[in-house]
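User: Can you write out an input/output pair for a complex, sequences first and structure second?

Assistant: Here is one pair. Inputs:
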Amino acid sequence: MQITRQTEYAIRTMLELALAPEGEVLSTRYISERQDIPEDFLKKTIKLLALADLVVTQRGTGGGVRLAKPADQITMLDIITAVEGPISLNVCLSPAYNCPNQPTCPSKQVFQRAQEALVAELKRQSLADMVKSM
Amino acid sequence: MQITRQTEYAIRTMLELALAPEGEVLSTRYISERQDIPEDFLKKTIKLLALADLVVTQRGTGGGVRLAKPADQITMLDIITAVEGPISLNVCLSPAYNCPNQPTCPSKQVFQRAQEALVAELKRQSLADMVKSM
DNA sequence: ATAAAGGGGACAAAAATTATCCACATTAAA
DNA sequence: TTTAATGTGGATAATTTTTGTCCCCTTTAT
């Protein structure tokens, strides 16, 4: 019940990008050195962020990464979801899962509510808010 | 960011115990068959529940397991914590962890709040509530 | 005594996570 | 137009966590 290290990497990367001058790109190597993240692993992590439209990448000399939208339009939930997929506190909450104990499973509802509370909080704070508090 | 299968086993076990007649013990084997849980793995899981004072075990012939207290005094949070230890959505929230970015880490606060919301919900519903909803 | 329980430690298997390597495609600049 | 800097993608390895199994022990009612 914990975010993975990769998600931590993603959060730190997004903070780094949010702090960079508007429109400027940062290279993966630069970020990996600043944040002490294995470069090749970071590449894949950034790819996930790009697929989720949180960052834009630019290939070639002078290329790199930048935020795809203003920091106040990106939430912690966005980042976590980009890396880990949709949050589901219990397997039974995954969309794909077909619970064999349906419909009498009493724990599903508990997890459903807990998850909603969690998601609401993660959605509440934006990357911009986080940067402000630094 | 998901409870483990072992925690699922623990929840199902607690529900099974909550449904048993007051004061009666159920054997690990019985529970493992009813709930389709590997017996030796269940033994360890039950041991964790016993260490957390959620169940009482009785050795010897006719022995088994029963709830250590009324079902309305046991919460989902109690069960999760018994198996997985204290919830910490991010390593940086673990009591033992000493964050190298302290005290300027902006994500810690976000996780702190999210975790509190989650914990509050998990604490809200008791085993008794869950049984009622079956 | 005996058999039916739980207790505990070692270990194995499986799954998930993290990390590394390398060949390739793109692009700006020399 | 070559070159070097950069992201892309796939394969694979290493590590860690989770899950499962085995086996011998202790306790206890009959």
